[in-house]
Specification:
single chain; mainly alpha; Methane Monooxygenase Hydroxylase, Chain G, domain 1; 3 helices; about 0% strand; elongated
Length: about 90
Amino acid sequence: MANTKSAKKAIRQIERRTAVNKNRRTRMRSQVRKVEEAIEAGDQSAASEAFKAAQPEIMRCAQTGIQHKNTASRKVSRLAKRVKALSA
């Protein structure tokens, strides 16, 4: 248990940040899931629209440190490749 005033404050800050990060991560995963569901259904227009919404969400998570930048770029790249394959 924290004894000092600064340690107690740090615990409060960590709890707040954890809640915010969890919310952002969940939002990102939901967007990615929507893209994947549209791809599975074979709906190219829905997949394209969902991808346009998911891409900034993924990159925002990378920018805020929830996810590594290379991981985010890899996810975006792979999703884009799958969406593009639908149109071919």
